């Protein structure tokens, strides 16, 4: 039977080797240490990403955000998750259907 202390020492050495590799090979475009940090987006950037106005972003409390010093910040990963879960999925046919305004002349609605 193998000595459990030798086995633990071997595993510890493997972990140290892996940690050294992570610290010496940073992720491209990220910070040293192999960890990439997501930069926060401004309200304008979040609005452009979502395809809505900055005002709509500021006034929609369902959109994930952080506030620091009176300034709103957004993270792209959280906005992607919001898009996946926060919007109602519609069919292509529904998206192409256009509602027409009510015909006030004869009092009939034109939502046919």
- Average pLDDT works out at 76
Order of secondary-structure elements: HHHEEHH
What is CATH's topology name of the domain at 37-90?
Multidrug-efflux Transporter Regulator, Chain: A, Domain 2
Our Rg estimate from Cα atoms comes to 26 Å
End-to-end CA span: 81 Å
Number of strands: 2
State the secondary-structure class.
Answer: mainly alpha
- Coarse morphology: elongated
CATH class of the domain at 37-90: Mainly Alpha
- Biggest sheet statistics: 2 strands, antiparallel
The CATH architecture classification of the domain at 37-90 is Orthogonal Bundle
Q: Percent of residues in helical segments?
A: 40-55%
β content, as a range?
5-15%
Which blocks of ≥5 consecutive residues have pLDDT under 50? 98-104
Oligomer: single chain
Protein name: Helix-turn-helix domain-containing protein
Helix and strand layout, with pairings?
Elements: H1 4-24, H2 43-50, H3 54-59, E1 66-68, E2 71-73, H4 76-86, H5 92-96
Antiparallel strand pairs: 1-2
Please name the defining characteristics of this protein.
112 residues, mainly alpha, Multidrug-efflux Transporter Regulator, Chain: A, Domain 2, two-stranded antiparallel ribbon, 5 helices, 2 strands, elongated
Please explain how this structure is put together.
- The chain is mostly helical and 112 residues long.
- The protein has 5 helices and 2 strands.
- It has a two-stranded antiparallel ribbon.
- β1 and β2 form a beta hairpin.
- The radius of gyration is 26 Å and the shape is elongated.
- This is Helix-turn-helix domain-containing protein.
């Amino acid at each position: 039977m193998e000595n459990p202390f030798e086995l633990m020492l071997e595993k510890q050495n493997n972990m140290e080797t892996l940690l050294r590799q992570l610290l010496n090979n940073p992720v491209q475009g990220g910070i040293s240490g192999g960890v990439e940090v997501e930069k926060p987006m401004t309200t304008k950037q979040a609005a452009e990403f979502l395809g809505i106005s900055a005002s709509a972003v500021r006034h929609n409390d369902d959109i994930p955000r952080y506030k620091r010093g009176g300034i709103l910040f957004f993270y792209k990963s959280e906005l992607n998750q919001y898009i996946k879960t926060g919007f109602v999925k519609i069919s292509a046919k529904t998206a192409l259907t256009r509602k027409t305004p009510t015909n006030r002349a004869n009092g009939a609605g034109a939502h046919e």
